[in-house]
Amino acid sequence: MKPIASIGMILLLCLMVVQSPQTVFAGGFGVSGTFAGHEYKMVAGETSSTANVTVIFYNQYDIDIDIRLNTEAPLGVKFLNLQDEYSISANSQLRIPITIRLDEVITPGSYVLNVYAQVLPSNDEGITLIGSAGLQANLVVLGEAGMVNISVVSVNGLAFPAILELFRMDDETLVFVALNELEIVTQYAASDYLIKAYYESTQVAEHQFTLDDQADLTLELVAQTLLIERFQVVPEFDDSSKVLTTAQIHFELDNIYKPVDDVSVVLRVIHDQTPIEEVDLLQASVVNVGSTTGQVTYYPEQGWKAGEYRFELVLHNLDESMESITSHTYLVPRTVIDQPGLLEGRSIWFFALIGLGGFALIGGGWMIVRSRKRPHTKLGSQQAEKTTTFSNEK
Predict the structure, then answer these.
(1) Under DSSP, is residue 284 helix (H, G, I), strand (E, B) or coil?
(2) Most buried of 8, 204, 259, 343, CB within 10 angstroms?
């Protein structure tokens, strides 16, 4: 029984290794790739993407080898664009993208997919031992699906040549679904999705949406090709008094596509979460392709006050098809304000300490009165020490 048990353990270990995403070798032949353990979630009639699901076969022999590729899948699942046989040069690797397509009629449920290969023996090359290696993935066929039609237009409402990248949002994980040019018109599983649009490697749009069962959803994204490239707020101080005087506002816009009409740039200023004013930085009938810069000296109408300032740069056009906001937050301390008020810039802890100090003084007076009738205690000494320390810090 012991030899049989040992053989069983060895076979189980081999199965676990083959299903691992790590590289697995049988002699000089090995396999790895993202197909291992990958979980497809698809609906009937859907075709998976080839972007990031691959199987990699390794040839560690000093001679070229030929391999026979085999796949295993349930009825209604087809592997696309695969050859029966491949050649791998000596000491090199072969990367094969894995694409599957589901028939229009397939029973919802969970399935197992296998891709494996065998080294073909060759008398000429002296290959007599047959090595084999493979990987396993999972397929979940969903019963609920909807149709989605996604396209992109420019801020002027014209068709835009974007590259679309679609992700399904599984809990907190983004699962790549599709990569298409210009538009996506396909049926997908009912779920939450994230769509991103790119132009010359720059992201110009992003949108989250929910696709319900039996839905027919049309989305038209607006490409933001006029971007805020740079936004700076630089404080300036009086040389002698070190008091804050003004702030220099610098901004740069980058137009990566075509001229954009009726553009405005506004500086929105918020003090301690309360909006105090808006300043027009740019009003342009058209912004051409390339860089547009601007600078303005800012001073609050009511003067600087201690506290938190939030500066927001708002970029938009008249028809509101384009809007972009970037911001910076600064803490202005009392030490750089000319004659700040007593309570200006004080945090809530300051008022809490004042209250505690008041209680401490009352408690200290009460202890003094009590001390006339009986000896001092350690507790009374500690209270007096805390009150004194608080006064010193003040």
Answers:
(1) strand
(2) 204
